[in-house]
Amino acid sequence: MKKLFIVATFLLISNSLWASFIYVPMDDDNQKNHLKAYGIVYFGLEAGLKSKWLLNYDGGAFLIENNKAIENECKIRGVSYQIISDAKAQLILQEIASPSSNQDAVILEKAPKIAVYSPKDKMPWDDAVTMVLTYAEIPFDVIYDKEVLEDKLLIYEWLHLHHEDFTGQYGKFYGSFRTAPWYIEGKKNAERLAQELGFNKVSEEKLAVAKKIRDYVVGGGFMFAMCSATDSFDIALSAEGVDIAEAMFDGDASTLNYQSKINYNKTFAFKDFQLERSPIKYEFSSIDMTRKRRIPKTSDYFSLIEFSAKWDPVPTMLTQNHTTLVKGFMGQTTSFDRNTVKSNVLVLGENKTNREARYIHGTKGKGMFTFYGGHDPEDYTHRVGDPKTELDLHPTSPGYRLILNNVLFPAAKKKKQKT
User: Fold this and answer.
1) Is 260 in a helix, a strand, or coil?
2) Is domain 114-411 given the CATH code 3.40.50.880 in the classification?
3) What is d(CA 345, CA 117) in angstroms, rounded to the nearest whole number?
4) 154-191 per-position pLDDT tens digit
5) What range does the record give for the signal peptide (predicted)?
6) Residue 126's CB: how many other CB atoms inside 10 A?
7) Distance between CA atoms of residues 269 and 361, nearest Å
8) For 2-108, which CATH superfamily applies?
9) In this predicted model, what pLDDT tens digit does every residue of 99-130 receive, in sequence order?
């Protein structure tokens, strides 16, 4: 019996000595597919494997409990990795833990359940988030107005808003595309859906959806939005009880002097904006910088702001990248005028020369939101009908990495933010 105990103890000690981890570097030199690396981490979390996100270490590297299935997936998906010993892992963690380093190791606990708010007839390449989730092989469900109004959001930890117009003005495409078959058909479909859900107007139905999403975030959900879903969401909330849509959108006149009735206290991120009244202008408000920009494409970049990893882990997670300088890209809402961003909202990425915020984050109740300006990080001026972006050509895209940071950070073990 004593002999068996000694053998068992020896085996246990030997296993500990030879325990190993899969190390996934995320710097520029050592990772050949940054985007699929996030899918590897998600795959491991789904399998119940322990993982750590090494903030500001090798571009935001990952440390995953070793498992043959993870190794195989790294090989299949073309993700660079190393097998390192427990001793090597401990040395890395000790280096990160040093008070002199702006680094931290965040435990990732579980794979977040993901929903994408999008019309069911949209193709994956119509939206950068659905495209990169598909490329990274991260599973998600597509939901839309009916599911949101039926409180189906409650089963998800993370929600992305497709390039939606929550104001009921059909994307402000009226000026250029009002005779296009796709515009006419889309307007009919939206009106039909609103009636089926018990609303007289599309604007009323979209407001109800926006309020449900607001409640989801206040209750503890994580919400991410890009392009027009950012400002149109806040505009819809601020205009509750006020008709800001002209007759060609909803069949009746807008409220007289509606600008004075906008309530900025109801918004998530924006304040003091002026709405664009003209129905033929492809713009919602003064929040967007698209028409104010004077930046040539060759010098259109924005910089990521550095945060304290040990004190502010959430913004640090959201800005993990292998470069601090990210290529700019256009959209209906390209970027945000700093004068319209509320003081309690963190700017994560900015172009200082133009005083514009590109990437912002905030809290609302128990939940959090992130707004990212622009349409497609690897298609500078994406227009209606343009071909889809082939992410196989951009596996190390810094702009797309920011999206995937948002997908993964709800998996992190919660720490109290110090500032």
Assistant:
1) helix
2) yes
3) 23
4) 999 999 998 899 999 999 999 989 999 989 999 999 99
5) 1-19
6) 17
7) 8
8) UreE, C-terminal domain (3.30.70.790)
9) 999 999 999 999 999 999 998 777 655 799 99
Domain ranges for the chain: 2-108, 114-411
**3-state SS, residue 262:** coil
Report the distance separating Cα 214 and Cα 112, nearest Å: 19
| Closest to 269 measured CA to CA, from 285, 287, 286, 293 | 287
Whole-number Å distance between alpha carbons of 397 and 400: 5
**What string of DSSP letters covers 341-394?**
B-TTSEEEEEEGGGTEEEEEEEEETTEEEEEE-SS-TT-TT--TTPPPP-GGG-
How far is CA 223 from each of CA 103, 209, 215, 359, 401, rounded to the nearest angstrom?
Answer: 26, 14, 11, 14, 17
Task: Report the alpha-carbon distance of residue 337 to residue 292 in Å, rounded.
Answer: 9
User: Do the Cβ atoms of 177 and 254 come closer than 8 Å?
Assistant: no
Give me the pLDDT at residue 415, please. 57
Task: Give the amino acid at 231.
Answer: D
Residue corresponding to tokens 């959806």: 209
CA distances from 322 to 6, 28, 46, 302, 398 (A): 48, 5, 26, 14, 7
Asked if residue 71 has pLDDT above 70, the reply is yes
Q: Which two tokens stand for residue 355?
A: 């005083």
Q: What is the pLDDT of residues 137-157, one digit of tens each?
A: 999 999 999 999 999 999 999
